[in-house]
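Workshop exercise sheet. Pairs work together: one partner reads the sequence aloud, the other fills in the structure field after running the prediction. Swap roles for the next sheet.
Pair: D.N. / O.F.
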Amino acid sequence: MPVLKETDFTGEIVWLGHVPAGRGIRAEPAEELALGFAGAAGSRHKGENRASCVRVKNLYPEGTEIRNVRQLTILSLEEMSQIAQDMGTESLDPRYLGVSVVLKGIPDFTHIPPSSRLQGPDGLTLTVDMENRPCVLPGREIEQDHKGLGVKFKPAAEGRRGITAWVERPGMLKPGDALRLFVPDQRAWMPH
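Structure field:
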């Protein structure tokens, strides 16, 4: 019996981006993403391993070499629309958010379970790490082009910032591709 069960949900890719290494988090639109085991070549978050950061400071001293489970940032179009609405703007450009993939069609996307899989038409499979918590970096990118709006990002993005993921099986992503959602076949953790 499989430990991952296919759901009835698919997400359609509506935007792809590439965040070049050695710069901030501003993404450049991409016509396609070729993903290997190390993620996208030349991207800020490429690599099979990475230096630990503040997100795991309770586990490791900053800079410790660990497995890279943050190769990609994936957001939902629906949640981005909610963020924009709460910020008081008509729309939110994914370039400001360091996004690799924007999907539409999977409800409550930010909260899909860790270890879920998103599988593309060519077999490419992305494994969900966890919720990507809002930080100040997107706000700084927004502020450069829209004065006074950047500070509104972090509170508006709470619980809507999407997920981070890593490549389990390499392949290609293109706009219009459907990613099928598989979730772990287990009950929620109940420690008491």
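Discussion prompt: The chain has one domain: 4-184. What would you look at next?
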